[in-house]
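Friendly challenge for the regulars: who can give me the structure tokens for this chain first? No prize, just bragging rights.
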Amino acid sequence: MPSARRIAQKVLKTSPGRSAAKSRRAAGTPHSGKGRSSLQKSAGSRWGMRVDRTDKAAAVSGKSAGRHGTSTKEQESMAAATHGKPAGRHGTTARERTGKTAAMHEKSAGRHGTTTKGRAEKVAAVRGKPARRFRKVTAGKPVKAASKPFVETPEERRKRAAVIREILGKEFPEARTALLHHSPFQLLVATILSAQCTDERVNMVTPVLFGRYQTPSEFASADQTELESIIRSTGFFRMKAKNIIGCSKGLVERFGGEVPSRMEDLVTLPGVGRKTANVVLGQAFGIASGVVVDTHVHRLARRMGFSREKTPEKIEADLMDAFPQSSWIEISSSIILHGRRTCPARKPKCDVCVVAAYCPKL
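First reply, four minutes later:
Bragging rights claimed.
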């Protein structure tokens, strides 16, 4: 047998009350609650029992029924009349409640009754100590006092640089590049590999690399995929392999397979910039063409107050002005070794630094 629920649904579909409701909606006539069948009301439909309850509540209260008998606004008006004050959004506003609480505690009302400063003063009075002063904040952080800028003349900077060079010279008497090589070409290849990589890692790769390829012509004809597999651990191996092969081809085609000894010629080769050229010229040929600015020199030049620039080219120019040309090769290696041993980026060991007395620690 069909259930009572299905019977009620069939009756509802065919009842005249449903057709009348459709006619009212089409004509735009508001629903009055009349014309509903007794089955609709007893079945607990959407507009049966609920609307009846609303109508009954409206009759008892003596007012027109809203969706739930009374609206939120009417309820607020009733509450306001009971408390003897005009109705806000919810009868009373946050400011009124805060003012009432403040009156009870006999203090001026802030946003939440008392301010942070007022609470601090109250705690200080109980403890018998003066309230601490609150620092002004900007964007949620305390405002730091401006530090005194480090200022010195070019002559003072050169004198300080001479003292630092002498101290570092005694600390690192045989300062040289840590890259292992036996020829200018090997140093050139090793320096290209050292980009974004440690010298220790490069020294682990170059014995295998130079065991497979010895001359620029062999590197020029090397298979790039095979070369990449050898130098993969140095990082950026695809770009480095491409630059090494291109540099070797340039040496064979334009310089007879020999590494040139001029800055102007070296920087025309793929993968060779001023830093690589300075390393090769200084360490392989003994030519002081400039100062090598790697990550350590870049950091220490700013920390020691020799430069305020951010680009390697401008930092190199400031170091070339601070140190005499005869010390450019030496000072580059000394600063690099000092940066690795004593003055790293995160936790510099200023307590054991040999040049701490001459370093502004910027």
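The CA atoms of residues 43 and 104 lie 55 Å apart. The beta strands are 137-138, 141-142. Your move, everyone else.
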